[in-house]
User: Fold these one by one.
Assistant:
Number 1:
Amino acid sequence: MGVDAMEIIDRRSPYSFKIELTSSGMNFLSSRLSNVTRWLDDTEMRFWRAFLVSSHRVLDAVSADLRSESGLTMDDYEVLVHLSEAPDRAVRMSELSELVVQSRSRLTQRIDRLVERGWVCRAPCPDDRRGQFAVLTDEGFDALAAAAPGHVDSVRRHLIDRIDREHLEVAAEMFDELAD
């Protein structure tokens, strides 16, 4: 039984790969690739790559500004914002995990660091002995209030002010759909 090779190459991309299979296996894979995979066309590929590059650059720039001006990470800031917007500045840990799109264990580590800084405290959940609330302290609120003007300026400089209003509205709708 011979071994054949099949190369999949996208001339626009530095990524290519070679699959070596038996003749019957290669025929199966070849038909599966052509029937199932919806490769990106030029416009879709341009969008995807521009999204990757621009999102990394914007987040890196805003994160660097936030860290240098306030000592906060983006993850810290996001947690503090969610807590500041909640009734009594408290959110159940399981809900907060979903809001910040982090695993519960990663969020627990983040909250531990914020507790050490005195910006957050934990409170028991009255309805469930296993549950806990993360609660924004006055010191945490003050840290957030001090960081917010510089952060908003950075977001404007690196993103918002670089997009005209019409595109901004379309992008907001698009990202709202993706977030659901």
Note: The domain at 43-179 is CATH 1.10.10.10 (Arc Repressor Mutant, subunit A).
Number 2:
Amino acid sequence: MSPDPAAQPGKSAILVIDLANDFVFAGGVIADAGGADYQARAQAIVPTLKKLLDAARETGVAVVYATDAHTPADTELAKWPPHAMKGTWQAEIVPDIAPKPGDLVIDKTTYSPFVSTDIDAELRRRGITRLYITGLHTDCCARHTAGDAFQRGYDLVWVSDAMQAFTNEAHVQGLEYFKTWYVTDAAAQIKTADQVVEDWRHSAQPRQSGVLAVS
């Protein structure tokens, strides 16, 4: 597939959803609820996310983390047991993809950060118009986040191999939901990490007199 000519790193952000220890490693409430198979699949996307985040920082794509950091008063805890509680190891972002200076880290208390944080204002202040959706879970927090972003007019790309869910079937169903309700061009909006990195690097290459500079 040819690089996406619409990719504009300076107007884009990669959104990493719920890559907290609680969601990934044994001993976390959510990770233990998913079991060993889920934990293995959640951990397997970490190297892919690291590659994406490194490429994002290299090419000028904003890096944004939106991660659960709950307090006992949060209404979500009426549905789920206490997890990723603010100030604990469980709420910390997975060390291999820890934030770096300049990244935006947002603590959320709802499935979608658009409901409980000022993420929309922060993105617009930075001139962000396109979001690359990654993280956990494809069929829950990523789905709700994508829906809120879609309704607010963001251009969306889902990085299919940088997301997961409690089951692989739920992951696939989540991607199909995106295609049904939000996607207008599946080839351009459902991509692998390698395709996204290629898009960013192609778009970030220096141009001279309107012609792509080739070394």
Note: The two ends are 22 Å apart (CA to CA).
